[in-house]
Amino acid sequence: NIKKMARGSDFEYEAIFSLIPEIKLGDWKDLKVLKKPVEAKDDETEKVIQDLREQRADFISIDRGIAKGDQVEMEYEMYMDNLRTEEGKQKTDKMIIGRGLFLPEVEENLIGLKAGDEKSFKITYKPDYAQKRFAGKAVEFRVAIKGVCEAKLPEATDEWAKSFGNFENIGQLREAIKKNLLSEKEMKEEERTELEALDLILNTATFGEIPEILVSSETENMLAELKQSIEHQKLSFAKYLEMIKKTEDDLRKEFTAKAEKRIKTTLIVREIAKLENLKVSDEEVEEEMEIAKGEHAGHGHKDEYYESDEFRDRLENILLSRKAVGFIKGQIVK
Asked: Where's the PPIase FKBP-type domain (predicted)?
């Protein structure tokens, strides 16, 4: 707000800033997080092999009752209180029984039906069903089976393994799958220990008042991340909100506590980086900038963007946070 603005006198104004809250760390280096051993088991490898076989299955039309694993083509309608629901207008759908694309109660009612059969049945949705308009309600399904196909799975042979890339035999494919499974588990365990370590430090730290504008800004960031994630799934955000029966304001309220925790975690990481005098070198930033250019080539940003001070500062903050988290894990993860 302008306090004084007159010819021949000093210009005075009043500005209000939101200050980063104070933080006091506890004795965080005395904390301990135990890393759990991980392994990739043979039955997990075989489960992946089976999934790959099912993905490449041929479906052959058959004249028998529906069984688990069959592909079914059907028309169906859904009625609630004797009125056809908007979601249940006559549809033709294909699904594989046992894959969980429909409710288990629906699939159970299809077992044994043949092409040409029709059936009506009712199921009651669970009280906590995601689509609230169906939660706890009885819904009548009217189905007409148009076709039944049996899955013919390819044998897991050396020739079949070669079709997935640079594998000479099924043994090499199994070994590659097992290696990937182990890598995924190790990554998940690293993420778990990181989150546990940060949570423990957060619980032993004390914070000044978190400015509302920070919480509001982080809440909007979380909402934007969710929107982007939904759109990547080829679903409009409006449709997503309709499915979960919530509004953007409902989500904002749900995100508020999580947003405040995110802010506190960021403050912890920055404070430890400062206290431990952690730095990011120009060489580290330059190397990461080159990686970013390569990864985002053709995504709309010109090279000038990756040379800008704005991007450089952002990247330096990311690298410093990464280094601080690595330091934290090195201190307390055992």
From this structure: 66-144
